[in-house]
Write a structure and sequence with these properties.
By secondary structure, the chain is mainly beta. The chain is built from 3 helices and 69 strands. The strands form 18 sheets. Strands 1, 13, 15, 16, 19 and 20 form a 6-stranded mixed β-sheet that branches. A 5-stranded antiparallel β-sheet has the order 2-3-5-8-7, with no helix packed on it. A hairpin with a 4-residue loop joins strand 9 and strand 10. It is elongated. The relative contact order is 0.05.
């Protein structure tokens, strides 16, 4: 019952004293690894008969045979490594080896003879071990001869027991306790305690391996159970997250963890493992609480040896008999799911909804309450998702808006119409025909009406309501007549500042039915206009005091229509700082001295400056760098000074850099006369003009303070004569500056008139939800809104979770 192997364990070069070269027994070679075939060292010494010899040197792969005294030449040996250095291993025959010199014969018949004689150790005899099957913790007996030379025992998978841990140790017997990490497999006896060796790559030792495998016992599972039933080994058990599962059997003290593996094809379940379990003193019972992450599938006990012991198949309890109510449910309203075992739900998923959905469950798991159905949700099946990935689908339906009629069944394009019905507060947009513009919709508070201006490209048919979730609802037929009053057929794109008229100037737009036009108003003030019949164009004069957001009203003999336009206020002026032609080349050109130190002096208080650099690209990668007059980094962000290198759009022709008053002051302070205020250089562009766009603020305060608007308290300082609203013109922008009382929480501002705190007319909504913890709400005042404020006691500002700090007009 023995098998012997030799392994390099401790290389003792001094004992060998070798550096042997073919056909030269007397020369000492000081180069251990060189050209030709060379032997530097061999071992172990002594070696066991039947053991293994290791030879180290150069090009030993060229050895044809190894001659050991008393044995036939050995030609079948292992080449571990060829070349320089190299290594071969030779098995020593069990029978016949004698003490003497070993000769290595090369393939060219050269001979290399060792300078030391090989000697042999008494062989360790491994007769048997008992018992053949054993449990960890029990004592194993090994019998044989010369066992006193054994200094370590190794079980399968490298589990080692050093000599100091043997229970008993003699020439004929060794007793050792089988460790918990031991696995079934063959046993090996080592004549060296490897735990005492610092470098295993530099040593020799012998291994004697058993011919038979030792059977190491593992935990035994006879049955397992949950409060919902039990099963025998490999059977199915159903359990709920948090319930206690009990395993019955033996030797559970050998368990290190419990592993749960999802069924094949389960893409959401993940393998998980728990070490949170209890074992009885006699090791016959193991209990654990089922983790929330445990997926349906196989359950295994993981032994300290690493061996997995199958227990059975787990089926987790999921919500069942689930019903959603109300049905249908309205977006924004609460929805209740009734059923069983809803307390295992970790998340709710709804179609077309991203992010978390807030919900609560009651203690007995019979109800789950979704606090607010997201407005983006689409009806279908929601999923109650458990932490283990398992889900239960629950069908639900949504309330849809219904239009029952209109305030009149025929309307002209550009006219105003009111839709009547139910749940119209769900509507976000309306389309009057497939190719018509979408109109933003805002219903009254009870959701029974929506008043909108019909777009000019509207057509007769069934208008379409568009909800936040993308769902569309068809309305009753509506007859839309082509507008017979004067209207603009194409508005300028005010996102391009070049299309914005300046206050005090004019702007021209194409119109239809210009012959019906009687007058034009801008912000409620009649202005000059010219209608060119030949080109069907209308030129409108913009008042010098027009604000950035203004309203143009075209008044015809048979109707009127209003348009919001963007205006460059008269408070914005452009100051040319430099014109010319400067080729930057590849960082070769610069604007040193081009911009005088005083070029941005005499700015009005509060004015903002935007530097405009006009350029012509000369390559694909256009870059521009800004520095102060001393060629130093500047601060364009009111923070730490830094290098500013801009990558410009090669298709554009202008680049803007905002400059605050403090930045301009710093640049002027640090610049010298020869450098000027600011220097630009870069590459792949020709600079043609540098100008400054200076904007003088038009915004003025009408109220400042600190008003706590929590709990729908109302600020009435601008009501009941607190402010003269009759002096305000349509198109004026009013801004409400706020700070939230509770950061991160929901808050809103609601605008009301003084009389009974009633709602203001369209387009003012019931409330403005506050986006950030600090900020402002910006509202454009129309003629209808201003009339309502004037006629009904001024403006009241109310809402929740906000403190009002300032109100301004522009």
């Amino acid at each position: 019952m023995k098998k012997i192997k030799n392994i390099l364990a401790l290389l003792v070069v001094a004992l060998m004293g070798l550096s042997l070269t073919a056909c030269s027994e007397d020369d000492l070679d000081t180069n251990q690894y060189q050209g030709g075939v060379h032997l530097n060292v061999y071992g172990p010494q002594p070696v066991m008969r039947g053991g293994q010899l290791r030879f180290l040197g150069s090009n030993l792969d060229q050895i044809a045979q190894v001659q050991i005294p008393g044995c036939e030449p050995i030609t079948n040996f292992e080449i571990v490594k060829a070349g320089v250095p190299s290594e071969i291993k030779v098995a020593v025959p069990k029978d016949g080896p004698e003490v003497g010199y070993i000769t290595l014969v090369t393939k060219t018949d050269e001979e290399i003879k060792t300078k030391t004689q090989i000697t042999y150790s008494e062989p360790i005899v491994f007769d048997k071990f008992s018992p053949a099957s054993i449990m960890p913790g029990e004592t194993l007996t090994i019998e044989g001869d010369y066992l006193n030379l054994v200094h370590m025992i190794e079980f399968n998978d490298g589990v080692q027991i050093p000599e100091k841990d043997f229970v008993s140790h003699s020439r004929y017997k060794i007793e050792v306790v089988v460790p918990e990490e031991a696995q079934t497999g063959k046993i090996s006896l080592l004549d060296l305690d490897l735990s005492t060796v610092a470098d295993l790559s530099q040593a020799f030792y012998n291994i004697i391996e058993s011919e038979e495998a030792l059977t190491v016992g593992t935990p035994i599972v006879t049955k397992w159970a949950s409060p919902r039933g039990e099963a025998q080994l490999s059977g199915d058990v159903t359990a709920k997250m948090g319930e206690t599962i009990t395993l019955t059997g033996d030797h559970f003290s050998l368990v290190s963890s419990i592993k749960f593996s999802p069924k094949e094809g389960d893409l959401l379940g993940q393998e998980c493992e728990t070490k949170d379990f209890n074992v009885s003193e006699d090791g016959k019972t193991l209990t654990f609480t089922l983790p929330e992450e445990a997926a349906d599938g196989d359950v295994n006990l993981v032994c300290r040896s690493g061996v997995n012991i199958p227990v059975g198949t787990l089926e987790t309890v999921a919500p069942s008999e689930c019903v959603a109510s109300p049905s249908p449910v309205k977006a924004g309203a609460q929805m209740v799911i009734s059923g069983k075992d809803l307390d295992v739900v970790a998340a709710v998923e709804m179609p077309n909804v991203e992010g978390e959905i807030e919900f609560i469950t009651n203690p007995d798991g019979s109800k789950l309450i979704i606090k607010s159905v997201p407005e983006t949700a689409t009806e279908g099946n929601l999923v109650l998702r458990m932490k283990n990935g398992k889900g239960t689908e629950v069908p639900f339906t949504l309330v849809k808006p219904v239009v029952t009629g209109y305030d009149h069944n025929t309307v002209s394009a550009g006219g105003v119409i009111t839709l009547q019905g139910t749940n119209l507060d769900l509507v976000k947009k309306i389309k009057f025909g497939e190719s018509s513009d979408e109109v933003e919709a805002k219903a009254n508070e009870d959701g029974t009406t929506i008043t909108v201006t019909v777009p000019m490209n509207a057509v007769s048919g069934k208008p379409t309501l568009i909800l936040a979730n993308g769902t569309t609802v068809e309305c009753p037929e509506l007859s839309i007549e082509e507008a017979v009053f004067c209207y603009i057929t194409e508005m300028p794109d005010f996102s391009d500042k070049e299309n914005m008229p300046e206050a005090g100037s004019t702007f021209t737009v194409p119109v239809k039915n210009g012959d019906k036009l009687e007058s034009v108003e801008v912000n409620g003030k009649k202005v000059n206009h010219i209608y060119a019949e030949k080109t069907s164009s209308l030129t409108i004069g913009i008042p010098a005091d027009a604000s950035s957001s203004s309203v143009v009203k075209l008044i015809s003999s048979n109707g009127s229509i209003e348009y919001a336009i963007s205006v460059i206020p008269q408070g914005t002026v452009t100051r040319t700082l430099w014109t010319g032609s400067l080729d930057l080349g590849n960082w070769a050109g610069n604007t040193q001295g081009f911009l005088a130190q005083n070029s941005l002096d005499n700015l009005p208080d509060g004015a903002s400056v935007v530097l405009k650099i006009q350029y012509t690209p000369t390559g694909d990668e256009v870059q521009l760098k800004s520095q102060d007059g001393n060629w130093k980094n500047i601060d364009l962000d009111n923070g730490e000074e830094a290098e500013h290198v801009y990558t410009l759009d090669p298709k554009a022709k202008e680049f803007s850099i905002p400059l605050s008053a403090s930045v301009i002051a710093k640049m002027k302070e640090k610049s010298t006369n020869w450098g000027g205020l600011i220097i630009f250089n870069g590459k792949n562009a020709i600079l043609t003009k540098i100008s400054a766009e200076i904007t003088i603020p038009m915004e003025k305060n009408i109220w400042t303070g600190s008003f706590n608007g929590a709990g729908w308290a109302g600020n009435q300082d601008l009501a009941w004569g607190g402010y003269d609203w009759s002096s305000i013109k349509p198109g004026t922008i009013i801004r409400f500056y706020y700070t939230k009382n509770n950061a991160g929480a929901w808050g809103c501002i609601s605008l009301r008139h003084g009389k009974d705190w009633g709602a203001l007319p369209a387009p003012i909504p019931g409330q403005y939800d506050l986006d950030g913890d600090t900020g402002k709400v910006e509202v454009t005042l129309t003629s209808d809104v201003l009339k309502d404020i004037v006629d009904n006691g001024g403006l009241v500002i109310t809402g929740d979770n906000f403190t009002l700090t300032k109100v301004t007009l522009e």
